[in-house]
Amino acid sequence: MSNNNNEPKSLKRRMETDEQENSSSKKSDIPRKSLLESEKTFVVRHVFKDVSEFEEGIINSNKEEGHFNVPWSIGLKRKDGHLGYYINCHQSSNLKQFCVEVNANLIAIGPAGKMHNRVLHNTFRARSSLGFGNFLEWETLVTDFLVNDSLTVEAQVRIIETSGLGKEKIRSFDETQQAVSDVMLVVRSSEFYVSRLFLAAQSTFFKAQLLGNCSGSNDPKVPLNGIDPFDFHYFLEVLHGESAIDDSTVEGVALLADMYDAQTAMRRCEEFLVEKSKKSLKKKLQMASRYRFENLKQQTLEKVQTTRDIRSIVSDSTNINDFDQSTTLELLKKSVSQF
């Protein structure tokens, strides 16, 4: 079938973009991983419909979606002649000590690529919403950004640090381990006492960092920048053979295993996602694409059987760049086969 108006538009856009990139690109020596791929970053995207019917002072939110053990959504509000735009963090009220520090770029997208954005750096504590009550004048929104009374919004989020969200820790890496350790790794204000040789055997990064000829490789105290200390604790537990992977920790552990080239930890993350995880089909395909989990990708795609399955993964609100090209192509084939 050569044309199908029921295919998700985002799938078509991704395939067209990939074809354009592939036709003009040449082989590059740039390292595979970019900075963003080694950070706790994600995108929440949604198309709000019937925007002109928003009631004054009422929050309108999309369905929650989970990223790095936190449920997120976008909230929009019409008030006092402005559009309010918020990123919502939906943590249980039972977590009295939870804390999530973020950088977020909140974007409204209009026709012909027109955009308006504001950036926030803040911390979720007791409050579940952060953003701007005067993000955009309502009149400007109506005249410059609405398409068929719909508004496309996108929140690009980078998690800087979390606390109070994880599972109970199994193993200690504090000063009680100092007698059997020869290096202290420092992640923000947390200290981890570990063995150089053990880490070097598990990770090519740590082999170079702790045993190589680079500056500071012999230092007794080594700082690690740009990572979350809670994620690093569970990552170390996995390296030491503990059962630390569950649906609340697997994203953070996989991120660090990929960053530090720790292949055993990568395999254990993929095995958990294939065999035990309750995460959605969409989330599994996102992780399979990001971390090159081929077994997970194939198993998950085999479970995509119906139009409803496809729509749960891809819609006009989906950030299709979350999927690699082969996943996008397979989803497109499945979409076409339904009609």
From TrEMBL:
It comes from the Eukaryota. It holds the Pfam family MATH. Residues 1-31 are annotated as: Disordered. CDD domains: BTB_POZ_ZBTB_KLHL-like, MATH. Residues 37-157 form the MATH domain. PANTHER family: BTB AND MATH DOMAIN CONTAINING-RELATED, MEPRIN/TRAF-LIKE MATH FAMILY-C.ELEGANS. This is BTB domain-containing protein. It comes from Caenorhabditis nigoni.
